[in-house]
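Here is a tokenized protein:
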Amino acid sequence: MEIKSLDIFCEIIDNFGDIGVVYRVAKEFKSIYNENIEIRVFLNRLDEFLPLNKRARNVGYQKIDGIEYITNEYLAKNICTFSPANVIIEAFGCNILEGYLNKAKDESSLLINLEYLSGESWIEEVHLMESPIGAKKLRKYFFMPGFKENTGGVIVDKLFLNRKLEVQNNKSIYIEKYLPDLSDRDYFIGTIFSYEKNFLPLLNVLLKNGKNNCLLVLGQKSQDSIKIILEKLDFVEVSKDSYEMGNLKIKFMPFLEQEEYEELINVVDYNFVRGEDSFVRALLTGKPFMWHIYLQEEMAHMDKIDGFIERYKEVLEEFNLEIPLNIQTKLLRDYNLRDSNSLELGRENYEEFFKEFEQISQLTKAYSEYIELKCNLIDKLNRFILKY
């Protein structure tokens, strides 16, 4: 089926992950089809979108780089003038305006329920399963992102891959761009973008590793967590949002646009990230990572962590790398083993992670190459639509 027009619906709850994924999907389809496709993104609110793109405004309707961004409120007021696209993506099971959906049942051809990313094995059975909606023309299917070839994959957009190549081939230029005060010394650099967490064990390990360390802290929750530690230790504020103690420099970074964040995580040595979109970007850099997953009731988030660990092991064991996986996977599990977003000390032991850092780098690089080659969600989604 030819994709003439694409409508994407997104309901943002309380973080940047939902709009981050949708924003990326929209941009990638636009880059593939250029002027041959009309793309609209419908949002329940704009609060999280505005920081991702500094050209965005707090208005009901706007067009940026050929993509229309429309609030649900604007759609509701002008529903009589809207004709549904022939392909619709309902991101993460959000609610589509009833008036729009009634029209779509008669006018549109395909509705795709793009679900949340998961490593759990059951998604392989649900992927591309039809969901009856009682429409004569419109048909709905589940599209399940995952970490194996027989799932929907993850968003491996060419825009990101091109940016990755550019940054990693010109590291000194991007160090100067984002960290000009570090360009005169060789630093071991990491980023932290997390939910609430006690990072005292991490800082203690970095203070003892004999390297010049720099930790870049992004996001209010990460920065608030680190500030509590800085007040208890002998860190010295050397400039605005920059602190030092011994061999460790900590910098609080401003909020970055999506493209800027991608540049930063490609220029550093390792990334501790949160949510879905940032996690996938961290995977694709090929650098060592930790994933802080979104907390769920009754520890349900640990099922997703354990699912990812199983998929991660399955893939890497096929490469026959003589490197133990348990160091990284145990830390990943302990990093998320919480029933609340508290600042209590957990069971994380970062010492082995950094001791075996070079070997872990080989694992993450191999997995990144597998994801890029076998799990490209954009390609899979595009092929499914075209074959429909």
